[in-house]
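lol ok so funny story. i was supposed to be doing the assay writeup but got distracted and ended up predicting the structure for this chain instead. priorities right. anyway since i did it might as well share w the group, maybe its usefull for someone
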Amino acid sequence: MSLSPLIQQLINALRALPGVGPKSAQRMAFHLLEREQDAALVLSRVLEKSVNELGRCQSCSTLSETDVCPLCSDLSRNPKQMCVVETPMDVLALEQTGSFNGFYYVLGGHLSPLDGIGPDDIGISALVLRVQEQVVEELILATNPTVEGEATAHYIAEQLRDLPVKVTRIAHGVPVGGELEYVDGGTLAHALAGRRKI
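and the output, tada:
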């Protein structure tokens, strides 16, 4: 059966979402068209408005409707601590813990020479400048524990080596509630290497 060109366009558009394959996109498209037309219209308006009105915070590079995001405008935050993350979603994840009250810097990705992504593409020079201007005492590297994330963290640490800033890396290891027999060898190795005195 051949679908209407418009329905096929909608399905193809929904496939742009992460983790959405052809069948999932098809189900979403028909659900929106058959059962949730009002919600579909709201979704389209909000999505268009978000794309047109959201930009990058001039200070931390996260997504924001204003030149400086609410986190960077918050005077109660600790200006001496900064956490470097790869994406705005990482900021959200850290904020939900309630454990960090410093500022952030969003790289917008990680170093990946194979994909042609170098230091200038993810704003590392702007990060170094911000650390110097803000007089940061501790820079926490919270890039993902992937090969690229580790390489990015090491590169940033190297760029800051001559500055009077303490550079730390988030811990990696056994998840809370996890059992050792189910944890992979790489994770266990990180956990052993990062052990601390109690």
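Helices lie at 5-14, 22-34, 37-53, 70-73, 88-97, 124-134, 147-159, 185-193. The mean pLDDT is 90.
back to the writeup now i swear
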